Amino acid sequence: MREVKRHIYVDDFEHRLLVGCLMTARNEYIHEDKPIEDVNELILKIVDAPTKKLRVILKEDA
After folding, report:
1. Which of 10, 37, 39, 53 would be a feasible disulfide site paired with 14, CB 3.0-4.6 Å?
2. CA 47, CA 62: separation in Å to the nearest integer?
3. What percent of the chain has a predicted confidence (pLDDT) above 90?
4. ∠ CA 49-54-57 to the nearest 5 degrees?
């Protein structure tokens, strides 16, 4: 069975917010003595994700 991959597009602010939230969750896990390996992997995936320029076309109603 093939693994499903999902793509999301976020701007710089959303990227920083996402990483910040994950770091906060990681710190809470550390404080509660919970395993953090999965959170670490997700943080690395997000930080190392390639960037892609998107072209936006605005259409005006005639």
Report:
1. 10
2. 42
3. 65
4. 160
